[in-house]
Amino acid sequence: MSAGEVELALLDAARLEPQEDVLVLGGGALALGAHERAGDGWVYVVRSQVDELEELLGEAHAAGASGVAYLVGEAPVLPLPDGAVGAVVGRIATDDGALVAAAEELARVLSAGGRVSLAESDSEAGESLARSLAAAGFEEVEVGQVGGQAVVSGRLG
Question: 3-156: what fold?
Fold first, then answer.
């Protein structure tokens, strides 16, 4: 399966709604897909490297996407206020020791009832992420498989 199929599975699992603000942890195609589904909502793309953001900004401009903001940060410390977004999609690029902190940070930036949909490289990493999300207060946490990758989703209680 292609990376595009994993991105589509992430977007489907997040159940994005029109005019909803979304946080994307990761790349261009996922950000553009979230922008298509969120319509007039804002898409906040967070990456740890400025040069990555410049490349993504170029892709968004080429696609004519407005309402996309690029921020430098990472999952354990996100540059957004409490309750800022209705959904989070992407990948948490952190080691297992920081997963709980990252899950708590995702819970902080999500509004009540917000959804999360994240990809991990394999089942074991997916199960570890699922446990971290549940410990941070997420409900209905599920782990699925798409293209050899774990897709972990849940809803903030």
Answer: Rossmann fold (3.40.50)
Q: What is the pLDDT of residues 13-60, one digit of tens each?
A: 999 988 999 999 976 688 889 988 988 889 898 887 777 667 777 777
- Residue 24, both tokens: 């994307």
Q: Residue 138: beta bridge partners?
A: 156
For residue range 53-81, list pLDDT tens digits in order.
677 777 777 777 678 777 888 888 899 99
Give CA separation, 128 vs 42, 69, 108, 110, 150, in Å: 30, 30, 20, 20, 11
Q: What pTM was estimated for this model as a whole? A: 0.90
Measured at the CA of 21, the angle between CA 36 and CA 154, to 5 degrees, comes to 95
| Burial per residue of 11-37, b for 16 or more beta-carbon CB atoms within 10 angstroms, e otherwise | bebbebeeebbbbbbbbbebbbbbbeb
The ranges assigned to domains in the chain are 3-156
